[in-house]
Specification:
The protein has 355 residues and is mostly helical. The protein has two domains: 85 residues, no CATH class; 264 residues, no CATH class. It contains 14 helices and two strands; from the N terminus they run αααααααααββααααα. The protein has a two-stranded antiparallel ribbon with strand order 1-2. The protein starts with a helix and ends with a helix.
């Protein structure tokens, strides 16, 4: 709790200086929201932190960074508040804090643990099914993944309700959600203040690389989710169970989504390793890399399963892939995957405040 208070006090100090300066007014959504206030409550600072994309453009343009006596580092100040808010509002809170401290270890351990469970579950009867279901029955998969899918939804719903109350957002309006979705789909705030991109990796180099990899990861995940959803409809509505052919809609969506995920996650990790850690929440670096690595590995193991699904290694690959998928879903509320939900909620709240 003391650390949370320290982060908020430092963010408040810097926000007050930025509010007086206003040099960065057009850089991103943070500054119009910041300049609309005269005093900053804890909820205001949490909202500003979740509007921030940590592009770092304001830091490199600022005349008050170290060695100036003001020693401004707004990207880091907001990153610390943002990370701490995710931990405090996570449901359950202890799980959020644990992942941020031991993200890599937890991600690896859960994938291995669940993979071993799926490997052991091969002994369950599969009723003569084909393809992947010959290794693990369809009913067993549903029994395992349905609760694993519902738990993150419940957890995130509780977390976002806490966030909405904490920032003092007004009544929810569907029109605000539409505005937020448009901004999120375009990733407007990663274009930079002048549309030249952001200088996340290098002070003197503006690129759209970070925006591109974020879009690759987001749309890759959505395509993979669409693949599963289409396969579910085909199975239950049209009585067309798997396995599906290479040119079927589930396979086309899954392959394109998996490729985008793997490439996007690999490039995102590269950009993170190149960037200056002192401009972000350095204590959360391991947890961020663990999440991106887990998401990328989930996509990679799915592609490997597609490639070798007819070989003798299929049962092993299936166990590994399902272990990765199950780990990803169960850990979603406590990893940086949750930041997409918080960011969207922050955009919805901001759209309401601008009306």
């Amino acid at each position: 709790m003391q650390m949370q208070t320290d982060f908020l006090q430092e963010a408040r100090r810097q926000a007050e200086i930025c509010n007086a300066c206003r040099y960065c007014e057009g850089y991103c959504s943070v500054f119009p929201a910041l300049h609309a206030e005269r005093a900053f409550s804890d909820g205001d600072l949490t909202q500003l932190a979740n509007l921030c994309h940590n592009c770092r453009g304001c830091y490199y343009a600022c005349q008050y960074t170290a060695p100036h006596e003001f020693d401004l580092n707004l990207p880091q100040a907001l990153a610390d508040v943002r990370q701490n808010s995710w931990e405090e509002m996570a449901f359950p809170r202890a799980a959020g804090k644990a992942f941020q401290k031991n993200g890599v270890l937890i991600a690896v351990a859960t994938v291995i643990g669940f993979a071993l469970l799926f490997w052991a579950a091969r002994t369950l009867p599969s009723a003569g099914d084909e393809g992947f279901y010959a290794a693990l029955s369809h009913n067993a998969m549903v029994a395992i993944f349905l609760p694993a899918f519902l738990f993150p939804l419940l957890s995130i719903a509780v977390s976002l309700r806490r966030y909405w109350r904490h920032i003092g957002a007004g009544p929810f309006r569907p029109a605000h959600l539409i505005t937020a979705f448009r901004q999120a789909a375009d990733m407007k705030n990663l274009k930079g203040g002048h549309g030249d991109g952001c200088n996340f990796e290098d002070e003197d180099r503006f690129t759209h690389a970070r925006r591109a990899v974020h879009q690759a990861v987001m749309y890759g995940f959505l395509l993979c989710f669409a693949s599963t959803s289409v396969a579910t409809v085909m199975h239950y509505v049209f009585d067309m169970p798997a396995p599906y052919g290479l040119l079927s809609l589930p396979k086309l969506l899954g392959l394109s989504g998996g490729l985008l995920l793997v490439v996007g996650c690999a490039e995102m990790i590269r950009l993170k390793l190149q960037s200056d850690r002192s401009l972000g929440a350095s204590a959360a670096f391991g947890g961020e890399v663990a999440f991106v690595g887990l998401l990328g590995f989930t996509g990679f193991s799915g592609l490997a399963l597609y490639a070798f699904g007819q070989s003798t290694v299929m049962p092993t690959l299936l166990a590994i892939h399902l272990g990765a998928v199950l780990s990803f879903f169960l850990l979603t509320p406590f990893t940086k995957m949750a930041h997409g939900f918080y960011r969207l909620t922050a955009l919805v709240a901001e759209a309401g405040r601008q009306k």
